[in-house]
Amino acid sequence: MWATAKPFLEDLVKEKYSMQSTIKKLQEKAPELLKEMPELPSLVLNALKQMNNISNIQNEQTKALLTN
């Protein structure tokens, strides 16, 4: 079974992750990416704040579990 599937899977992976495929995907997404680019700094800052908040909540919950 592997002998039959291996060539198919290799071709699929080459097609999906090749440089040409990556460039094509970037070209297709370029207008959307350019439109969203001005929002990136605030999105990154918000994500970092959320990660910090989640970390603080986890620390509080861990402390509460250990003290009970």
Write the SSE topology.
Blueprint: H1 2-17, H2 19-36, H3 40-67
Question: What is this structure, in a nutshell?
Answer:
This protein has 68 residues and is mostly helical. Helices cover 91% and strands 0% of the residues.
Mean pLDDT: 93
Identify the overall geometry. flat
Largest sheet: none
Question: Spans with pLDDT under 50 lasting ≥5 residues?
Answer: none
Residue share in helix: over 70%
Number of helices: 3
Residue fraction in strands: under 5%
- Rg to the nearest angstrom? 22 Å
Strands, count: 0
Supply the helix-strand structural class: mainly alpha
The succession of helices and strands, N to C, reads HHH
Q: Give the total of domains.
A: 1
Give the end-to-end Cα distance, rounded to a whole number of Å. 55 Å
Structure description:
By secondary structure, the chain is mostly helical. It has one domain. Helix content is 91%, strand content 0%. It contains three helices and no strands. The protein has helices at residues 2-17, 19-36, 40-67.
Features of the shown structure:
mainly alpha, 3 helices, 68 residues
